[in-house]
Amino acid sequence: MKSLIIYYSQTGRTKALAEKIESRFHCDVIALTPQKKYGNYLLAVLQAGWEKITRRIPGVTASIPNTSQYDAIFIGYPVWYYDVPAFMTQFLKKCDFENKTVIPFATSGSTDIIATLQTLETACAGAVVRHPFICRRRDGDTSKAWLDAIEKDLSEFI
């Protein structure tokens, strides 16, 4: 079966990681774009905070994918306010993740991915969330070991 990557990248770091995954596992890719642009990093964080308070969440320009042909779905995002961006959560809740393996990958200046997993598990109802990975600036690029572990563990999917 094929794998799918669904991701959003504000600064290009999440995109670079998605490209490594796509290159390694030959996945289909959906790059999400919010209907309202977030601007630079500082404006994005401020907007994310405002969305959290007001619950006014922009839509996404991508169509909801038919996930029936996928067993493994990689989901990539920046960590904002210790969580998945709200527009991504809203999009993911519309997708069918029943009996899928979801593999989250995130980028952050310093926050860990653990804080986002509850949100992701709720948004991806019916999925098993495995192999979460965070790429933080201070840690350097540790993605090769993570990709090796996924390849070994999930070889029947990818």
Automatic annotation (TrEMBL):
Alphabetically ordered keywords of this record: Oxidoreductase
Q: What class of enzyme is it?
A: oxidoreductase
Q: Spell out the Pfam families in the cross-references.
A: Flavodoxin_4
Q: Which InterPro entries match?
A: Flavodoxin/NO_synth, Flavodoxin_CS, Flavoprotein-like_sf
Please state the Enzyme Commission number of this protein: 1.7.-.-
PROSITE patterns listed in its UniProt record: FLAVODOXIN, FLAVODOXIN_LIKE
Gene3D superfamilies xref list: 3.40.50.360
Against SUPFAM superfamilies, the record matches this protein to:
Flavoproteins (SSF52218)
Q: Name one GO molecular function term.
A: oxidoreductase activity, acting on NAD(P)H
State the superkingdom: Bacteria
Q: Describe the location of the Flavodoxin-like domain by residue ranges.
A: 3-158
Q: Where are the transmembrane segments?
A: none
Task: State the protein's name.
Answer: Flavin reductase
